[in-house]
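R.M. (postdoc): so does anyone remember the format we settled on? I'll just put the structure tokens first.
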């Protein structure tokens, strides 16, 4: 395995935790780089295939373990499956000490496309996979998916008690301050990404 594949390349991450991307207070990370160009993408700045914030999975795992208020990890992007090996290592390191730690992952791939070895290995560590490309014409107003074509795959029982909240619950929107910049978190409630949030400030 090359050194590049052992590191996580993150666009950003929410160090303080969020309640907008799944049940409980969750550590949230966004990977850098995506091969898809979905019109209306909520984070087009995360598409470019470039080095952004390079992080050791072990260091991030230690951070997660050191914050007992975090009930789980939510992974988005960019496209997380482009960094499947490093994400698998991250999750396994966390679960060495936090067996109950739940994992939600958003991907632009459909689950049927995730057939290469690194992706199938990562799938074994995910509790909830939300799959499929964002389609602006099928915008969804509820739950954790951006458009109606995207599907919820509960791959374990860890989050099944939260099914209604995840699939059709009211959305939470948050603004976090990370390194002196405002960062919106959550699934947009209307077209136009997070412009409506900033208009309310």
């Amino acid at each position: 395995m090359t050194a590049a594949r052992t590191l996580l390349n993150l666009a950003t991450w929410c160090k303080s935790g969020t309640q907008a991307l799944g049940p409980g207070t969750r550590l949230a990370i966004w990977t850098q780089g995506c091969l898809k160009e979905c019109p209306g993408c909520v984070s087009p700045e995360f598409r470019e295939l470039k080095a952004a914030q390079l992080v050791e999975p072990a260091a991030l795992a230690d951070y997660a373990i050191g914050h007992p208020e975090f009930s789980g990890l939510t992974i988005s992007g960019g496209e997380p499956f482009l960094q499947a090996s490093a994400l698998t290592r991250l999750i396994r390191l966390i679960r060495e000490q936090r067996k109950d730690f739940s994992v939600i992952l958003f991907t632009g791939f459909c689950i049927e496309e995730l057939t290469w070895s690194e992706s199938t290995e990562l799938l074994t560590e995910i509790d909830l996979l939300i799959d499929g490309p964002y389609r602006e014409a099928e915008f969804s107003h509820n739950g954790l998916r951006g458009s109606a074509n995207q599907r919820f795959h509960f791959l374990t029982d860890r989050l099944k008690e939260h099914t209604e909240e995840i699939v059709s619950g009211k959305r939470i929107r948050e603004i976090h301050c990370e390194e002196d910049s405002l960062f919106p978190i959550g699934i947009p409630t209307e077209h136009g990404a997070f412009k409506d949030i900033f208009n309310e400030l």
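R.M.: ...and that's the designed sequence above, right after the tokens. Also worth knowing: The helical segments are 3-6, 57-65, 84-95, 117-123, 163-168, 195-200. The chain has a mean pLDDT of 90.
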